[in-house]
Specification:
The complex is a heterotrimer of chains A (166), B (391) and C (375). With 166 residues, chain A is of the alpha/beta class. Chain A has a domain of 93 residues: 2-Layer Sandwich (Beta Polymerase, domain 2). Chain A is globular. Chain B has 15 helices and no strands. In chain B, α6 runs antiparallel to α7, α6 packs parallel to α13 and α9 packs antiparallel against α11. Chain C is of the alpha+beta class. Chain C has one domain: Orthogonal Bundle (Cytochrome-c3 Hydrogenase, chain B). In chain C, β2 and β3 form a beta hairpin. In chain C, α4 runs antiparallel to α11 and α5 packs antiparallel against α6. Classes of the chains: A alpha/beta (166), B mainly alpha (391), C alpha+beta (375). At the A-C interface, β3 and α4 of A face α1, α8, β6, β7 and β8 of C.
């Protein structure tokens, strides 16, 4: 991507335009209906959803061209039919936080690891792996982090009921 | 023959007759020995009198109980006990003093048990002595126990060898300073082997640190020692003290040396800011990690004995020992000496409150690059003073 | 002899119960003599399944739980939780509550930083700093008692405002405390900044470049000490922070080496002064708001479905909560992004090449809090 123009502090509109030009229909932008939330009104949040094939190249593009320096968080949400992985990625020059969602089916829980782009995603991915069973391909050390090493279940899935629940 | 009065059994022999008996180890008046002798005269005489009540043939003249040999032997044993007990009490006082000073420095309550909180140390001692004696399974048993005993033993030994005055000493060597410092320098070897024997990585690193620290601070310390001996032209402790009384306290010509010796002494006794061999923040308890309960209590006591020795040497070498300028030996030179030691120890305690721990490489830098040259400068200065003839 | 059989280096397991790890975690370091060549942090001893527990509680019941995420930053944690729920409801809190939250947050930040300063004192072997810092902290905990009735787990923010308006004479007490603190901190600084031994322990160790800091996800004072100029309070303002004037201390902005442990230390000290300034300004602004105006608004029990995200500046970094609501009275999923969790993951990079004695000094600058790390 050396030939691409480098944006140190891309604005909300620049991000939208550049990504749409690059990825077209593979990345869907969502807009929020909230009226009173300051960060959304002042365009410091970008909501995107994509598929797992595009995810890695999107992340590389965000990091290399749009200067999103930090992977703030990675988490998963179990919607029973599918699991959604949510990435929060921040640009420190503008304070824009991008929220990328990727839906993966429960039958094939594989998603490319982005810890080679952002080292900070390493532990977030490990945590998501151990709590939801999502396998991050290419992760340097995908082991259990918080829970004991001999756990054979994924406690944060909806199928794992807490005692006293319901 | 028959019953004798108790006064025939218990009577105090004059110093000259004791000296002439041939069993007395001292040629000069020695206070702890005399106290021991008087005590043994009372105890043995009382025993003899009790026996005499029932066995009339047992008289003061033919009883081996009052023979000079036995009396002197008991006296020496009692003297040792007295010297240790006094050293121990001085130590407790110093621990108490340190705790009080640290309490005031840190804006908190210090010790509280007993009058002015003096008995807190006894309570702590009792507590550690009541603890279970735990030793890990995978240790090198022989070294583990021997190194521990020798570390504590050598610390106590040197502390007991420090004379409190010209009448309160256990042996008056011609080279008393050298002997004490020779024993002082034994510790790194013992600590290193103790650290190794515990089969624990923290204690191993702690032992290595202790060894490198002590060895590097031994050198400026011994240079300072040699400087003072050169100035006083003697190796005996009494001689150095007397030389200072005749001229001036050596802190005046050797203020640089005093500073160097003070820093080196804090390092040698392994106290904050130079306590990196125990460095609890990173090494848990350093080379003492696996010594639990009573062993740890004894090690702490040994540390304070070493601290006491270091303070005592600062007093002897730079602050005129047990003499006061103008007054000479007061009626109680021992108390003068202890008072000075406590004052010096206050500096140790304040340093502990004011400084964080120094890092390994920094400590070696201070030792070799700062203290060493300063010690040599001080030595050169003293040589100049000697050549000019002012001392 | 097998050449790969490496006997020069040894793995040392520092933790889970170790004086330098303020809480239960392990740092396994590979040491070549005293030099660290590799490190591996291990956490999880306190994992309680906090996020899963929240899925079984109603929204109001989670506020006191959020307090327990970190004992010394309880105010900011319940604040970020309330904020994410408010975002889900799409409401703004009343004017008075906005300032009260700022005051409470900044009190919390000062006392948390003082707790950190105390920990630095013990880590570097100076207990006087420890006790003096805790002494100063006690005054701010007393303010917490005045405001919310609790010293540590304050349970003060509410969804849609704060629990109560400030009590009588709170402003007077608070300003007295702040003014006293601004003088008293110099006493501690005499022991730390003005002591060459203390500075010598911190300077020149644990250099982090700005680029790496961002990449590893380090946030908060540690990030700002290394030259990344970002503070959520200023760049992504929430509550009343946009109406306040304050500086964000950033050090080593143009330093290609990045910042060392000492600059991270400096940033935190500087932040305490800025917090005092913010408290002062907030009280001045509060005077213009009528006392009768509400401090909280009524909110429904059930939250409309959707995904919501809120972030605020914790004393330790950026704390983010991500809420998925499904229209019921319980959250469907609540994700916590803890700043310390990420900072610890970068500790392996920080300690490489330093000495064993530097580990407490470098780790102290993370300001460990295991409750929020393991959740």
């Amino acid at each position: 991507m050396a030939d691409e123009e480098f944006f140190e502090a891309p604005t909300f509109d620049e991000i939208n335009l550049k990504i749409q030009a690059k990825f077209g229909s593979k990345v869907t932008f969502k807009s929020s209906t909230k009226k009173n939330v300051k960060a959304i009104n002042e365009k410091r949040r970008v909501f995107m959803s994509t598929d797992r094939e595009t995810l890695y190249s999107l992340c590389v593009y965000l990091h290399d061209v749009l200067n999103f320096e930090q992977c703030t968080s990675v988490c998963a949400v179990d919607y029973v039919e599918y699991i959604q992985i949510v990435y929060f990625i921040t640009n420190y020059y503008t304070g824009v936080m991008a929220e990328i969602t990727v839906d993966i089916t429960t039958s094939d829980l594989h998603v490319p690891s982005i810890s080679s782009i952002w080292e900070g995603a390493n532990w977030h991915e490990r945590e998501t792996y151990e709590l939801f069973g999502v396998i991050f391909d290419g992760h340097p050390k995908l082991e259990r982090l918080l829970t004991p090493k001999d756990y054979e279940f994924y406690p944060f899935r909806k199928s794992y009921k807490l005692r006293g629940a319901e | 023959m028959g019953y004798c009065s108790i006064l025939e059994w218990i009577f105090f022999r004059p110093w000259d007759s004791i000296k002439e008996s041939g069993y007395c180890p001292y040629s000069d008046y020695n206070l702890p020995y005399m106290i021991g002798l008087r005590l043994s005269e009372i105890i043995l005489g009382f025993i003899g009198w009790l026996i005499n009540i029932f066995v009339p043939s047992w008289s003061p003249e033919n009883s081996f109980l009052l023979s000079p040999a036995l009396l002197n032997g008991t006296a020496v044993v009692l003297e040792v006990v007295i010297i240790f007990a006094v050293g121990f009490i001085i130590n407790l006082t110093m621990i108490w003093e340190e705790r009080k000073i640290l309490g005031r420095t840190m804006d908190r309550r210090a010790t509280m048990i007993g009058p002015l909180g003096y008995f807190q140390c006894l309570g702590d001692g009792l507590k550690t002595f009541c603890k279970e004696n735990i030793a890990p399974r995978a240790i090198d048993k022989k070294v583990y126990w021997w190194a521990l005993s020798l570390v504590i033993g050598s610390s106590v030994l040197i502390a007991c060898m420090v004379p409190l005055s010209d009448r309160w000493y256990i042996v008056n060597y011609d080279a008393g300073l050298m002997v004490i410092f020779g024993l002082f320098a034994l510790a790194p070897f013992l600590i290193l082997s103790a650290g190794w024997a515990q089969n624990n990585k923290y204690s191993l690193i702690g032992g290595m640190r202790a060894a490198e620290l002590m060895i590097s601070y031994e050198v400026p310390m011994l240079i300072m020692l040699a400087t003072t001996c050169l100035m006083a032209e003697t190796y005996t402790i009494g001689g150095i003290v007397k030389a200072q009384f005749d001229t001036v306290w050596y802190i005046v010509p050797q203020c640089l040396g005093f500073f160097v010796f003070l820093v080196a002494a804090i390092a040698e006794s392994e106290r904050v800011p130079f306590d990196l061999s125990e460095a609890e923040a990173e090494l848990v308890e350093g080379w003492q990690t696996e010594y639990a309960g009573m062993k740890w209590g004894l090690i702490m006591l040994g540390d304070y004995f070493r601290g006491y020795t270091a303070c005592a040497f600062i007093v002897i070498l730079y602050l005129g020992g047990w003499m006061l300028p103008g007054l000479g030996c007061t009626p109680v030179p021992e108390l003068v000496f202890i008072g000075k030691v406590c004052l010096v120890f206050a500096i140790f305690a304040i340093a502990r409150g004011a400084y964080p721990r120094v890092r390994t490489d920094q400590i070696l830098n201070i030792g070799w690059k700062v203290l060493m040259p300063l010690a040599l400068v001080n030595l050169a200065f003293v040589i100049v003073l000697k050549t000019v003839g002012w001392f | 002899m097998n050449e790969n059989y490496d006997t020069d280096q040894m793995w040392i397991t520092m933790g889970p119960q170790h004086p330098f790890s303020h809480g239960l975690w392990t740092l396994r370091v590979k040491a070549d003599g005293e030099i660290i060549t590799d490190a591996e942090p291990e956490i999880g001893y306190l994992h309680r399944g906090w996020e899963k527990e929240c899925e079984n509680r109603t929204y109001a019941k989670i506020i006191p739980m959020a307090d327990r995420l970190c004992y010394s930053a309880s105010m900011t944690w319940s604040h970020v939780y309330c904020k994410v729920v408010e975002e889900a409801l799409d409401i703004e809190v009343p004017e008075r509550a906005r300032y009260l939250r700022v005051i409470a947050d900044e009190i919390c930040r000062i006392q948390s930083h003082l707790m950190w300063l105390a920990a630095v004192g013990t880590d570097l072997g100076n207990l006087t700093v420890f006790l003096w810092a805790l002494r100063e902290r006690e005054f701010f905990l007393d303010l917490n008692v005045r405001l919310c009735g609790q010293r540590l787990t304050t349970n003060y923010p509410r969804i849609g405002g704060v629990r109560n308006d400030m009590p009588y004479y709170f402003e007077r007490d608070c300003m007295r405390c702040v003014e006293r603190f601004e003088k008293a901190i110099w006493e501690i600084i005499k022991l730390t900044d003005e002591s060459s031994t203390f500075v010598g322990r911190l300077k020149g160790i644990g250099y982090l470049k700005a680029k790496d800091v961002a990449n590893w996800g380090i946030t908060g004072p540690a990030m700002r000490g290394c030259g990344v100029d970002y503070d959520v309070r200023r760049d992504d303002p929430y509550d009343a922070y946009e109406d306040l004037e304050f500086e964000v201390p950033v050090l080593n902005k143009d330093n290609p080496m990045g910042g060392d442990a000492y600059s991270r230390y400096m940033v935190r000290i500087e932040e305490m002064f800025q917090s005092c300034e913010m408290i002062r300004q907030s009280f001045n602004k509060l005077k213009t708001i009528p006392k009768e105006s509400p401090t909280r608004i009524k909110v429904p029990r059930c939250i409309p479905a959707g995904t919501h995200c809120a972030k605020i500046e914790d004393p330790r970094g950026e704390s983010i909560m991500y809420l998925v609501s499904d229209g019921t009275e319980k959250p469907y999923r609540l994700k916590v992004r803890s700043p310390v969790f990420v900072n610890v993951s970068a500790s392996r990079h920080m300690v490489k090449g330093v000495r064993i004695a530097d580990i407490p000094a470098i780790m102290a600058m993370i300001d460990m809090c295991l409750g929020e790390t393991d959740r």
